[in-house]
Amino acid sequence: xxxxxxxxxxxxxxxxxxxxxxxxxxxxxxxxxxxxxxxxxxxxxxxxxxxxxxxxxxxxxxxxxxxxxxxxxxxxxxxxxxxxxxxxxxxxxxxxxxxxxxxxxxxxxxxxxxxxxxxxxxxxxxxxxxxxxxxxxxxxxxxxxxxxxxxxxxxxxxxxxxxxxxxxxxxxxxxxxxxxxxxxxxxxxxxxxxxxxxxxxxxxxxxxxxxxxxxxxxxxxxxxxxxxxxxxxxxxxxxxxxxxxxxxxxxxxxxxxxxxxxxxxxxxxxxxxxxxxxxxxxxxxxxxxxxxxxxxxxxxxxxxxxxxxxxxxxxxxxxxxxxxxxxxxxxxxxxxxxxxxxxxxxxxxxxxxxxxxxxxxxxxxxxxxxxxxxxxxxxxxxxxxxxxxxxxxxxxxxxxxxxxxxxxxxxxxxxxxxxxxxxxxxxxxxxxxxxxxxxxxxxxxxxxxxxxxxxxxxxxxxxxxxxxxxxxxxxxxxxxxxxxxxxxxxxxxxxxxxxxxxxxxxxx
Length: 508
Ligand SMILES: Cc1cc2nc3c(=O)[nH]c(=O)nc-3n(C[C@H](O)[C@H](O)[C@H](O)COP(=O)(O)OP(=O)(O)OC[C@H]3O[C@@H](n4cnc5c(N)ncnc54)[C@H](O)[C@@H]3O)c2cc1C
Known about the structure:
5-stranded antiparallel β-sheet, 43% helix, DNA Cyclobutane Dipyrimidine Photolyase, subunit A, domain 3, binds flavin-adenine dinucleotide
């Protein structure tokens, strides 16, 4: 008789006594067990235990259909591990927590609302990440259970189906995820939603100033972040977990991607990328899109194929390059912290003073936004960046700053339009980092830097792409009649922007 929850492979339910068969070594053992009818949120479910009259050993519980079916699904499931932005098995605190409770059902819920809002590259990358996670899980068990629908409907149903004692997740701090988790927690009723760990080294909300206020400025935040420190990577071991399965919904077809090159998805690829990047003289190369030697880990961090703690554990802060890289990771954490404290800043101005600047609207807006998005502004570094975004679902950081500044300060298009376009196309698109970097560039974010920091697209190109390697890579028509003349004059637009800013300040 198993003394803990066991994997019961067959049930035949008859009145109050069931016969159970469970695998043992190479063979199987049968026993008689008691069955008890229970109500869970108005639905009938049976609990099974054995042996009768000799102490209680829980074997299984679930809906009558499930137990009667005799399928593997009748397996005892003590908890659900609901994957979201943590598509990996290593360094995974929620996996550790779930595994400690007994058998684990690994689930991903394809939320149609998020799916529909994603561009094709993001959709494709998500599907590939899920397939990679499924393949990794299959080395240890039945694989990833996919369900489609609203999480607040799907998870309570699944919890009933497998009689889960808890649903384990990595906490989500973004506004949509946090609100969704509240809805799911309510819908689960007496089955707890257990949040363990976060996608960050230090969970958003944990750090505050001496006066108990949230940090508003990066530098003191990053200092407090380093002083606070972070845990060592979690020792989650998928081989040590008793994984169980359940019926799986079909994933959608992968959208066709024409001329788009995405990085390989999954945890193995993320760890390999990190290994390859380590030792790069980051300070010397990080601003050079032509060299293309940044880590390109943003996409893996976004989907949780790797945890920042895994990276931090490998970094030696006495080394200048590694210290700079750590500062970049701190930017990611800072933006998550700000969004957590000011969730409205996902859509709205962090500093509302700049709301009053004149921006183009109507047809002019459509034309300018269209030319920018297609890479047809006549400014090579801007156009190359926008083509890279379409071609790779990614763009170099220096170029992100240049194209964002150009849209807002040369084309006078409100930052929110650009941020939306980025979120649709970036495979690393992350609400906190995206919206707050856009606000940083637009001058309405957390940064104390004034609005009159305006990037000159010509001198930036000369400085950071000195041999035009980057622009030629993305603009084959450069230097031919097919390449457009500049859409606006940078010097004129810069002057207009500064004038509008002065005017706005004068009004206050
Ligand atoms: C307008 C704009 C929009 C952006 N949108 C996003 C976004 O949606 N998602 C995203 O992950 N990053 C965003 N960034 C930040 C930055 O451009 C990318 O993180 C970086 O280019 C990713 O490439 P990498 O992994 O090679 O970076 P590396 O230079 O190798 O940096 C290592 C890691 O540090 C973090 N990091 C670096 N710079 C920043 C930064 N400024 N803000 C936040 N984190 C940073 C990232 O996680 C990155 O993977 C945006 C920047 C701008 C200017």
